[in-house]
Design goal:
- The structure holds two protein chains of two kinds.
- By secondary structure, chain A is of the alpha/beta class.
- Chain A is built from 15 helices and 13 strands.
- Chain A has an eleven-stranded mixed sheet, with helices on both faces. A two-stranded antiparallel sheet of chain A has the order 4-5.
- In chain A, helix 9 crosses helix 11.
- Chain B is about 35% helix and about 5% strand.
- Chain B has a two-stranded antiparallel sheet with strand order 1-2.
- Chain B is flat, with a radius of gyration of 23 Å.
- The chains are: A alpha/beta, B mainly alpha.
Chain lengths: ~475, ~100
């Protein structure tokens, strides 16, 4: 049998049920792996062994008593350090929140705790989830498990690397413009970005409120379905969650895809996308064709405008959300001498944020400022409409869209650090689905010649996460 | 294109102190970013409606009833690093 930390959720659950091992042993196995590897990978920014083992023992008590227990009970998870965890530091990897301890749990953390989750630690991210490489974390970058000189992707790079390297069984992340899918792709694991509104964001630090989503990373499609089922649903603390039934996502596994239509948008396989990446994705699609799916080439002509629209809408919303960090209500305040309250704000905010956040706040402030609002923000919101219409047209004819997740495999640490625009282009293939609020699931689908994972995304219509799961499971077996 | 004076003005609106070196760096980088955004002008959006949200939800109503809050006053006060003075009050610099 594999080492315990290498198990999937399902395998771990079966083992716990048959009393082959305890949650404490399973947790110790993950903690051991973290001890061995985290100094190289920097996937976790906080590990509290005592707390984790206490949670594991609690889970073992539940398991001993109950005949039937939750599939997540006693299973170790990594949590992106942007989810509020009561009594446990939640830093958003920002200099300003390094000592911030939230007094309550995010809704999804509460849900998972009720199911008996064991949290093995908080994972690394780009400050306030802004970036595609975790290089903008105040704790330094997370390295790619396949090549320590390369990035893990971002912003949920820590959560992706932790699952890929078997430091935990599953993990949680957030995806605003690709922050789950892209690191999942670069690290070779499954990563689900849900429909906007499917999962409550209450207690998760807001980045761009019309785009932010919560999702999960896993080693198998089934694990994605298991966790999604537990975290999805209406929450009165997040009013963007509709009162819509949460289906049993496990029922979408191993369904027949015969006669179903897969759209391949040509813009996702052309300019700016590495040839090898495009070929590996197309080869994977052939496998689905062999299973009876119909392939259709389509065009999403507004694809090339998505990055520009996104880098107006997102910073605008971000700059508004981050106004709350003024040294008064949360986290760090300046210790310099100040003239008055306004000076206190200026000096606090200068120390509070890293480079990339300052950059994005500046972009957002500019596009919302008098005289520029119509030219930038309003224009971008109109382009957003066109992008949504593009997707709607394709979904009239096709069941899902399949495309590469990232235009290229993991890049070198430092490669784009001084060129923000080049870094932003790394999100070119994940941003459009975010803008349209669509679910998309990253699936590992091969390796580059240089030994790096390549991923594809299955994009589905709103609230059709199950459909993405069906196609992902057809690809996996 | 954006110049240093504009960058200083934006920083003032955003309430962030910038060093001279930062102003220089951001001027160059933001010019690149805003230059790239020009691509949107290729699209005719005259008769297009804006999208500000994708859920279609609006006005979520609830019964008006008193509930216990999520947090206590003490818990809220723990969230900042401002000094505590007598009677659990956080003290800020004066507005001038």
């Amino acid at each position: 049998m594999a080492d315990l930390n290498e198990l999937t959720i399902r395998e771990a659950h079966e083992g716990l049920k048959k009393k082959k091992f305890s949650s404490e042993e399973l947790t110790k196995s993950c903690l051991g792996r973290i001890k061995e590897r985290n100094k190289d990978l920097n996937a976790f920014v906080l590990v509290d062994e005592k707390m984790s083992l206490l949670e594991a023992k609690e889970a073992d008590k539940k398991i001993a008593k109950a005949k039937d227990f939750s599939v997540l009970c006693g299973v170790p998870a990594g949590i992106k350090d942007i989810f509020n965890t009561k009594g446990v530091k939640t830093t958003c990897c920002s200099p300003g929140l390094k000592n911030f301890v939230p007094p309550y749990d995010a809704t999804v953390i509460g849900k998972l705790k009720d199911k008996g989750m064991v949290m093995v630690g908080k994972t690394n991210l780009d400050e306030f989830a802004c970036g595609g490489s975790t290089e903008h974390s105040c704790f330094g970058p997370t390295k790619n498990p396949y090549d320590l000189t390369r990035v893990s992707g971002g912003s949920s790079g820590g959560s992706a690397a932790a699952v890929a390297d078997n430091m935990c069984i599953y993990s949680l992340g957030t995806d605003t413009g690709g922050s789950i899918r892209q690191p999942a792709s670069l690290c070779g694991v499954y990563g689900m970005k849900v429909t906007y509104g499917r999962v409550s964001r209450s207690g998760v630090t807001a980045m761009a409120s019309s785009l932010d989503t919560i999702g999960n990373f896993g080693k198998s499609v089934e694990d994605i379905a298991i966790v999604l089922k537990e975290i999805a649903g209406k929450d009165r603390r997040d009013l963007t969650t509709p009162d819509k039934e949460v289906p049993d996502y496990l029922k979408f596994l191993d369904k027949d895809i015969k006669g179903k239509v897969i759209a391949l948008p040509k813009e996702y396989f052309g300019e700016g996308v590495e040839k090898e990446t495009a070929e590996i994705v197309k080869n994977a699609v052939k496998k689905l064709e062999d299973k009876g799916a119909k392939i259709m080439e389509v065009s999403l002509p507004t694809t090339k405008y998505a990055v520009a629209a996104y880098y107006i809408i997102m910073p605008a919303e971000l700059s508004a959300n981050l106004e709350r960090y003024d040294g008064v209500r949360y986290g760090k305040k300046t210790n310099k001498s100040v003239e008055d309250l306004v000076d206190f704000y200026f000096k606090t905010r200068e120390e509070f944020f890293g480079d990339e956040i300052k950059r994005r706040i500046m972009i957002g402030t500019y596009v919302l400022s008098a005289g520029y609002y119509d030219a930038y923000y309003k224009k971008a919101q109109k382009v957003r409409t066109l992008i949504i219409e593009d997707f709607n047209k394709v979904f009239e004819k096709a069941d899902v869209i399949i495309a590469p997740t990232s235009p290229f495999p993991a890049f070198k640490i430092g490669e784009f650090l001084d060129d923000p625009l080049a870094m932003y282009m790394a999100d070119a293939l994940t941003i459009p689905a975010s803008i349209a609020g669509l679910p998309a699931l990253n699936c590992p689908c091969g390796m580059s010649k240089s030994g790096l994972p390549i991923g594809l995304q299955v994009i589905a219509p709103q609230f059709e996460e199950g459909r993405a799961i069906t196609f992902a499971s057809a690809l996996a077996d | 294109m954006i110049d240093e004076k504009q960058v200083r003005h934006i920083a003032k609106l955003a309430r962030i102190d910038l060093t001279d070196a930062e102003v220089k760096k951001f001027t160059k980088q933001l010019s690149g970013v805003f230059g790239y955004m020009e691509v949107l002008n290729e699209l005719d959006t005259k008769n297009v409606k804006e999208t500000s949200q994708v859920t279609g939800l609006s006005n979520i109503m609830e019964k008006d009833k008193v509930e216990k809050g999520l947090l206590t006053r003490e818990e809220l006060l723990q969230a900042t690093e401002l000094p505590i003075e007598s009677n659990q009050i956080r003290v800020l610099p004066a507005i001038k």
